[in-house]
Write a structure and sequence with these properties.
Length: 118
């Protein structure tokens, strides 16, 4: 069993916790559920590797959490990215969505579909 916990900052709880590459903490699981409910895979692909939208595996390597939130909530209409700022589920769980996608980008979450750590 392999476990990874990545701190968000030095004084906070971990951004995400992953066991065996696909078992995640409840907050990261909520991020996965948010990903699915917002149907982000339609543009970014089922494995976040990109389709008409860019690879989020690559983008999350360079986007700060603030830039991520601005992009998701405000959109980039000129590039085809809709705004999710009016989607209550996305707004409420934006930090969890970031944690899930950052875990994928960091390589700690090794497959797109995850399950909650029991």
């Amino acid at each position: 069993m392999t476990s990874v916990a990545v701190p968000a900052t030095a004084l906070s709880d971990p951004l995400y916790t992953v066991v065996d590459g696909y078992k995640v903490d409840p907050n990261t699981m909520q991020g996965f559920r948010t990903w699915r409910s917002a149907a982000c895979d339609r543009c970014h692909g089922p494995n976040q590797e990109g389709l008409v939208g860019p690879s989020l595996i690559e983008r999350l390597k360079v986007l700060t959490p603030e830039e991520f939130k601005t992009t998701v909530l405000g959109g980039r209409l000129a590039k085809g990215m809709p705004s999710f700022g009016e989607n209550p589920k996305v707004v409420e769980h934006i930090d969890q969505l970031y944690a899930y996608l950052k875990g994928r980008s960091d390589g700690a979450i090794t497959r797109a579909k995850v399950v909650e750590i029991e």
